[in-house]
Write a structure and sequence with these properties.
Elements (H helix, E strand, L loop, with lengths): L1 H21 L2 E2 L9 E4 L2 H7 L5 E2 L2 E4 L5 E4 L5 E2 L3 E3 L18 E5 L5 E2 L5 E3 L7 E3 L5 E2 L2 E4 L5 E4 L5 E2 L2 E6 L1 E5 L5 E2 L15 E14 L5 E2 L1 E12 L5 E16 L5 E15 L5 E10 L6 H10 L12 E2 L11 H35 L5 H9 L27 H5 L8 H18 L5
Parallel strand pairs: 1-3, 2-4, 3-6, 4-7, 5-8, 6-9, 7-10, 8-11, 10-13, 11-14, 12-15, 13-16, 14-17, 15-18, 16-19, 18-20, 19-21, 21-22, 22-23, 23-24, 24-25
Length: 439
């Protein structure tokens, strides 16, 4: 029995001491931690980091790295992990920026990253998967994906001392235990208070963005193709900005306190009833039709002094009715509007044509016989008083007057005219002779 107890105790002590025996700090072999280590392939990474549990230099992924990258065995990166960023003090062998050939990255043993770069993967345009299964604490997490659907998983992450910034196209982002963003108290070459908090800008796939444990952060800025949004533990924030490209219902519950809140984009609905104190601005500006009443009621509950004012000191919500982006409505409008427009244009053209014809008919000159008959009967313009011409060959001042018939008809007669005229005269005379006198 004593022997069995001795064996059990020895085995337990060996199990506790084994990790310490195999733990190894890498990167300080020359007595300095200035600069970084660059890996160009998975084989190169395995060789340079063999046996390391803590790396005290920046770990750089070279620009020509292709395929998947797995960081095995390393539990602590004191200066962080990042993608290539041209030749710099920590990366003298790098000439390019970004790692377009990197498709996925995983760190199954990593527990913590330090206060320089944290996890910074910029311009990794082919990156589709990021998985840090055991990472609990990071200085910053900054990821920029390419055009493919990206998946990001941090199942154990609890604290980010700097900021979380995610840009690109994602189908899922998972950080269920993340509680604090922006709790930095040390020194960092790249840290600025401007980047405190959470910033997500996604383009492409509709994204369900949920941070169920996040309660401690100063700023939240979310934009892009967000399908669903939830911060179910967040009660206080300095600035909250949401800009929705897809139709989105925003529920700020259980948020109670903020300095400034900006809600904009394609908002279908909103819930701000949990707010107790907004010291700056509450802006609700939707591109869709939206009722401003609930926001106004919430604002007046927080600021009753504005009830008697013509305008609110910090609440802004346009009340004009807005319409959604024209989809079917646009097609229907064009289908009906264009034919109607053509009909109206045809009616106007025809009216103008008929008007021109009417004017032309009104101004048309009558023929000669019509004009003469009109003037003879007293209509139209009055002819000037006739003065007969005088014969230029007259020597005694007398004038030879031409008959009016000569002015109305040509002086030359057609052949046979004189004979026909004489015959007509004889017939008239005979008729007068043969008539009986009246009784």
């Amino acid at each position: 029995m004593v022997w069995l107890t001795f064996v059990t105790t020895t085995f337990s002590l060996w199990t506790l001491l084994l990790p310490a025996v195999h733990a190894r700090v890498c990167g300080n072999e020359t007595g300095t931690t200035t600069g970084g280590i660059t890996v160009w392939s998975q084989e190169d990474a395995d060789a340079k980091l063999d046996g390391c549990t803590t790396l005290v230099r920046v770990l750089n992924i070279g620009h020509n790295y292709t395929g998947d990258f797995a960081l095995r065995g390393v539990t602590n990166l004191t200066r962080g992990l990042r993608s290539a960023s041209r030749k710099w003090w920590d990366n003298p062998d790098e000439a390019e920026e970004g790692v377009p050939g990197l498709t996925s990255i995983s760190a199954p043993d990593l527990l913590e990253t330090g206060s320089y770069f944290g996890v910074t993967l910029m311009n990794a345009t082919g990156l589709k998967s990021v998985s840090f299964e055991k990472l609990r604490k990071a200085h910053v997490v900054e990821l920029k994906f390419g055009s493919g659907d990206g998946k990001m998983s941090f199942p154990a992450l609890e604290t980010i001392t700097g900021y979380l910034r995610i840009l690109g196209n994602y189908s899922s982002i998972s950080a269920p235990k993340l509680a604090t963003i922006g709790d930095f108290t040390g020194n960092s070459l790249f840290y600025t208070s401007y980047y405190d908090g959470l910033k997500v800008n996604t383009q492409g796939s509709p994204l369900d963005l949920k941070f169920p444990s996040l309660w401690n952060t100063s700023r939240v800025a979310v934009a892009g193709t967000i399908a669903n949004l939830s911060f179910s533990a967040l009660r206080r924030v300095e600035d909250l900005t949401i800009n929705a490209e897809l139709p989105l219902s925003v529920n700020l519950w259980p948020l109670e306190s903020a300095e400034n809140i900006y809600l904009s984009g394609n908002l279908t609905d909103y819930n701000v009833t949990s707010l107790q104190d907004v010291t700056g601005l509450l802006t609700i500006q939707s591109d869709l039709s939206l009722d401003c009443g609930p926001g106004e009621e919430t604002w007046l509950r927080m600021h009753p002094e504005d009830a008697s004012s013509m305008s609110f000191s910090g609440y802004f919500c346009p009340k004009g009715t807005k319409k959604p982006f024209p989809g079917k409505q646009l097609g229907l409008g064009l289908g009906i509007g264009i034919p109607v427009l053509l009909i109206v244009a045809a009616v106007i053209w025809r009216h103008r044509r008929d008007s021109k014809k009417g004017i032309a008919m009104k101004n048309h000159l009558p023929d000669y016989e019509t004009e003469m008959e009109t003037r003879r009967t007293g209509g139209g313009e009055v002819l000037p008083e006739y003065a007969p011409p005088r014969d230029r060959q007259s020597t005694d001042g007398a004038s030879t007057v031409s008959g009016l018939g000569n002015m109305a008809r040509p002086t030359e007669r057609p052949p046979g005219y004189e004979d026909a005229h004489a015959q007509e005269g004889r017939l008239v005379a005979q008729n007068h002779v043969g008539q009986e006198p009246p009784n």
